[in-house]
Design a protein that fits this description.
CATH architecture of the largest domain: Alpha-Beta Barrel
CATH class of the largest domain: Alpha Beta
Structural class: alpha/beta
Number of strands: 11
Number of helices: 12
Distance between the termini: 32 Å
Strand order of the largest sheet: 1-9-8-6-5-4-3-2
């Protein structure tokens, strides 16, 4: 089913939040409100992605999107080894073993692309980079609308040259991973409302605003700054259909500050500040997904304990506005507030 952003009843997109927060039920709920729901294929195998696509198709007959992580070159093995040694006492304290060897991981990229060509979906978006020209052309020929996530005007130029149909402009206020196209890049700090016109100056593609949008006035400001639609992520984390853990939901109202850190995955990501970030963030190397795999046992142990001092708790700067209840109602209410 072909889709155009201008044809959405509500110009609101549910952010693809990898790691379990985005569910087929959440995507369908955003669709019922008149927006565009998304599935997050990051960290999933191609068959697992296909299962979620099948599930969302049973829940909605409206267009939906699937987000892919673009693989990066291997990180610095020596830097990862040094970080392992720094984390080892913490692992011993919690009686977990850190992986001594980390195999190459392309997030099943090739298999996912093959699956999306064999059974096309309405929208595909990319995080951490862009597809190759032949890959983008193949999906375009299959009728899929493609969205490149960008954090700078330079990335926007590259995305347009790669054949993207629209751009998700991610400001520094966004929760979770910054979508820089290179792992080692220092993420920009230009606020979303200034980043949008900076990107508009280099492209005519439709822009989707992402980052720190938690209420009606913020949505209005983003649309006035040049966005054709807005993307909500943290705002949906506490809704009924979210897959976020109970501890993560609770932390959104308990921990007051967010910070960008490489401590958990090696890529810069905004999350609720806690002691783990303070202890290890300055020493984490720009190596992804190696650091992600290295810290996985520690993060799993913290999650089992519900230990907010050591969990990775992705959240944007408007996290204190996230509320509970049905996602469809939340999206409807936010859009109504934006229209008032």
């Amino acid at each position: 089913m072909a889709v155009r952003l201008a044809e959405l009843a509500l110009p609101v997109i549910g952010a693809p939040m990898a790691g379990g927060a985005s569910t087929p039920e959440l995507a369908a709920a955003v669709n019922r409100a008149g927006g565009l729901g998304f599935l997050a294929a990051g960290y999933k195998s191609a068959p697992a992605m296909a299962e979620q696509i099948a599930a969302v198709r049973k829940l909605t007959d409206r267009p939906y999107g699937v987000n892919l992580f673009v693989p990066a070159p291997p990180g610095d093995a020596a830097a990862v080894a040094a970080y392992r040694e720094r984390l080892r006492p913490e692992a011993e304290r919690w009686q977990v073993a850190l992986p001594e060897e980390i195999a190459p991981d392309r997030d099943d990229w090739e298999a996912k692309l093959a699956a999306l060509l064999a059974d096309p979906v309405p929208v595909v978006s990319y995080t951490f980079g862009l597809p190759g020209p032949a890959q983008a052309a193949a999906l375009r020929a299959a009728g899929t609308l493609q969205i490149g996530t960008v954090t700078t005007p330079e990335e926007a130029r590259a995305a347009e040259a790669a054949g993207m149909d629209a751009l998700c402009v991610q400001g520094p206020e966004a929760g979770g991973h910054r979508a820089t196209h290179r792992v080692a890049d220092r993420p920009g700090e230009l606020p979303l409302l200034r980043l949008l016109p900076a990107v508009r100056a280099v492209t005519t593609l439709p822009l989707i605003a992402a980052g720190g949008l938690g209420d009606g006035p913020a949505i209005v400001a983003a649309l006035r700054a040049g966005a054709a639609a807005v993307q909500l992520g943290t705002a949906l984390l506490r809704t009924d259909e979210s897959g976020a853990s109970a501890a993560h939901r609770a932390a959104l109202g308990e921990l007051p500050e967010t910070v960008v850190t490489r401590a958990f995955t090696g890529r810069p990501a905004r999350g609720l500040r806690n002691p783990f970030i303070d202890r290890h963030g300055p020493y984490a190397p720009p190596a992804y997904p190696e650091v992600h795999h290295l810290t996985a046992p520690l993060r799993a142990a913290a999650t089992r304990r519900g230990d907010l001092r050591a969990m990775h708790l992705w959240a944007g700067t408007a996290h204190h506005l996230a509320r509970t209840g049905p996602a469809e109602q939340l999206v409807t209410d936010l859009w109504r507030a934006a229209r008032e």
